[in-house]
Structures are given as structure tokens and as C-alpha cells.
Design a protein that fits this description.
By secondary structure, the chain is α/β, with parallel strands linked by helices. The chain is 60% helix and 8% strand. The chain has a 5-stranded mixed beta sheet. The chain starts with a strand and ends in a 15-residue tail after the last helix.
């Protein structure tokens, strides 16, 4: 590897590099640092045999910062690597752990390596960049998102965890969920995660949700289950009224009434509270399933599978 100082005009960005989005504020901060302390790290470049000069392999942020300062020269380290894909991987390795590299830039980078490198697998790509196979799979899953959702993720309106759950849906189901999102029906990403997960289960087992397909025995069993569940919840309302009575009772009178059983009764209520938390969680999941089933029912085509749209560049 050779180090030297060359004219800025001899260096040009690589149009095929993994980064497409650059945080302007971060570049301004970098420019301020370079102005104060000089360019500490050289930009890695490779000779450009076609156009002459050099093409950036890694360090475009530094190059942009130097450009904004109007610098005429730049320190570079020149590598002899001619293989474009290997140069691309070097650039990926520098950027993959940067906070301002977007999930889609990362996903597209992994996909390019899988497409172009002979023998590449998700496991080898993960090993190349110090990631787990599960992590790489989740990033690649983002490429199955509708364009509208990709933009929402890029803009920070939806987090990566929610995006991964949405990406597991068919494009038609994604469209149905998108309508719900744009109407402002989700208060937080967590609600999107639960709803998309429920919708995926509905999507995978749609036939089980169609009562017309049930046998007489299955229909009778469902009616019995509905009656039992509703009856149980009705009894809980009675228990709530009892708890309200206890909540209104003076603590001194409670102590007198329970005597030595106060501690045991408190433990009893703790167990009730724990069960209530678990039951509430299940009902929240049930609510997501009910809404997902309604959304699929309102959009029959949402159960159909579709080919994913082209990922955002």
C-alpha cells in the first residue's frame, strides 16, 4: 500500500459504493475537525485505469468534508486491488458499523455480495463483517418491503424492528397495513410489531379464519369456547368490583379484619396482579389478531401472495 498526497481533482467517488446517504451535519462536524487538526487518516483509493486518476474505495465522508473546505489536495493510501467486488467489500467493512449507514444500504450491500461473489452464502457474508447470520437475514428481509415502507424506514418514521415484521407480509397485506398506518391508527412502533406479527399468522393460516370452511363439530366447539371465554371475562368484572371495595377500605380496618393473614392476602393479590398482566397481554394480542382478521376480510386480495417490488436503490 502506497501513501501520498494528490490533487483533489485526481480523486473521484465510486458510483457503486455501498453508501448512498450521507448525513450533512456529520460531514460538517468532520470538516470542522479537519480544519482544526488537519486530515489525520488518508482516504483509501485505487487507480482508475478507465478514466485515469483514482477512485475512492473507502473514506468518501472525508473526501466530502475536504471538498466543503475547498481543499486542493488530499492524503490517500493507494491499494492495488483491481477486483471491483473485493473493493466494494472493503468499503462495506469500513461503513457497516457506522450509525449513519442506513439499513437499506447495508441490506443492498449484503445482497450484492450474495449475487456476485461465487459461493457466497448468508453465513459467509455474516462472517466477513462480524455479524450473525440472523442479523444479516433480518437486514435482507427489508428488501421485501413495499417502496412506501422503505421510504418510511429511511425517514425514521418506522423502526427497523417493525419494518422486519412488515416485510414478512405479502405485498397486498403490506398495502392494507400501510393504509392503517397512514390513518394514524398506530401510536408507536411496538403496536406495529404486534399487529404485523398477528397479520402474518393470519396470512399463513387464513383458511382457519374462514368460518364457512368449518365442519359442524368445529363450529359447535368454537361457539362453546366463545361462550366459556366470555363467561370467564364477565366473572372478572365481578372480581374487579370486589377489588374496588377493598381499595376503598381504610387500611386500619383491613388490618383489623385480616389480623395475621395480611401478609398472605397481599401475596394473594400479587399473584392476581401477575395473572392480570399476563391475561392483559394475551388480550392485546387477541385485539391485534381481531383487527388483522378484519383488515384481511375487508381486503380479500391481501391473502394472495405477490412478488416483492424492486428494493429502493
Amino acid at each position: 500500500m502506497t501513501y501520498r498526497t494528490v490533487k483533489m481533482t485526481q480523486v473521484r467517488p465510486n458510483p457503486n459504493q455501498p453508501r448512498e446517504y450521507f448525513n450533512e451535519e456529520a460531514i460538517r462536524e468532520l470538516a470542522t475537525s479537519i480544519e482544526a487538526y488537519g486530515q489525520i487518516s488518508p482516504i483509501e483509493v485505487a487507480p482508475d485505469d478507465e478514466k485515469g486518476g483514482y477512485q475512492i474505495v473507502s473514506g468518501e465522508r472525508r473526501f466530502r468534508a475536504l471538498t466543503s473546505l475547498g481543499k486542493s489536495t488530499v492524503k490517500v493510501s493507494i491499494i492495488s486491488e483491481k477486483n471491483e467486488l473485493r473493493r466494494f467489500k472493503r468499503s462495506m467493512s469500513e461503513n457497516v458499523n457506522r450509525e449513519d449507514m442506513t439499513p437499506f444500504e447495508e441490506a443492498n450491500g449484503y445482497q450484492r455480495i450474495l449475487d456476485e461473489e461465487e459461493g457466497a452464502t448468508i453465513a459467509t457474508v455474516a462472517a466477513d463483517f462480524g455479524k450473525t447470520t440472523a442479523y444479516v437475514k433480518l437486514r435482507l428481509a427489508l428488501l421485501d418491503l413495499r417502496i412506501e415502507f422503505q421510504k418510511l424506514v429511511q425517514d425514521g418514521a418506522i423502526g427497523t424492528a417493525a419494518a422486519v415484521q412488515i416485510a414478512a407480509l405479502s405485498l397486498a397485506n403490506q398495502g392494507a397495513l400501510l393504509g392503517k398506518f397512514t390513518r394514524g391508527e398506530f401510536k408507536a412502533d411496538n403496536e406495529i410489531v404486534h399487529f404485523a406479527f398477528a397479520m402474518k399468522q393470519q396470512q399463513d393460516q387464513a383458511v382457519l379464519m374462514i368460518t364457512e370452511d368449518l365442519t359442524d363439530e368445529q363450529r359447535e366447539q368454537r361457539v362453546a369456547t366463545q361462550k366459556k371465554t366470555k363467561g370467564t371475562l364477565d366473572k372478572i368484572e365481578q372480581v374487579r368490583a370486589m377489588l374496588d371495595d377493598i381499595a376503598k377500605t381504610d387500611p386500619i380496618k383491613l388490618a383489623q379484619a385480616l389480623e395475621s393473614q395480611v401478609g398472605a392476602r397481599l401475596d394473594q393479590l400479587d399473584r392476581v396482579a401477575e395473572s392480570l398482566t399476563k391475561a392483559r397481554w394475551q388480550l392485546k394480542q387477541a385485539k391485534a389478531h381481531a383487527e388483522a382478521a378484519e383488515l384481511i376480510a375487508l381486503n380479500p386480495e391481501a391473502t394472495e401472495t405477490s412478488e416483492p417490488e424492486t428494493a429502493a436503490a
